[in-house]
Amino acid sequence: MKRKIFIGFLVVLAIALIVFIIFLLTRPEEMKDIKYYEKQTHQYYDNKGFADNTFLIDSEKEYNIFKKQYDTPIDEKVNFEKDLLFIQVKPASSGSIMMKLKKVVIKKDQIVFQIKEKTPKKVTDDIAFWYFVAVIPRDKAAQYDLSNWHKISKVKK
């Protein structure tokens, strides 16, 4: 009887250990030592490609296209020889919906923004448009799959 209990205990312990290891291996890794922030505006875009997308800006030319398309919402000083600019844009149905770029993480070998959204019980009757921005060193970003980020010059109007 004691042997069955002991074996049962070992099986439960082994399962718990396997679950813990899987959790550690699949947990997103936070990118450290990078600059990131969010900015709210009250712009409106009806083109889906420009209203809800992720952009990788790797040159002054791409940055100028971005600033022209979005009426210069971001005024980030970037040395494109050293750094890349990652911008995610997202509309909100109300200006009272607050969003925060909590972390920039690596998930399944891709750079992903973790955005927290807080909606009050009563919202204002206006729109909002959010910019989530990260400046990441080129050598750090080059280690990852960037296929979930798009060049703004390639987005169809």
Give the SSE map.
Elements: H1 2-26, E1 29-30, E2 35-41, H2 48-51, E3 53-57, H3 60-69, E4 83-92, E5 98-107, E6 110-118, E7 128-137, H4 138-141
Antiparallel strand pairs: 1-5, 2-7, 3-4, 4-7, 5-6
- Summarize model confidence as the mean pLDDT: 87
Please give the alpha-carbon distance between the first and last residues: 73 Å
User: Unreliable runs, pLDDT <50, ≥5 residues?
Assistant: none
Query: What's the order of the H and E elements?
Result: HEEHEHEEEEH
**Compute the gyration radius: what is it?**
21 Å
Largest sheet: 4 strands, antiparallel
Keywords:
single chain, 157 residues, alpha+beta, four-stranded antiparallel sheet, 4 helices, 7 strands, 27% helix, elongated
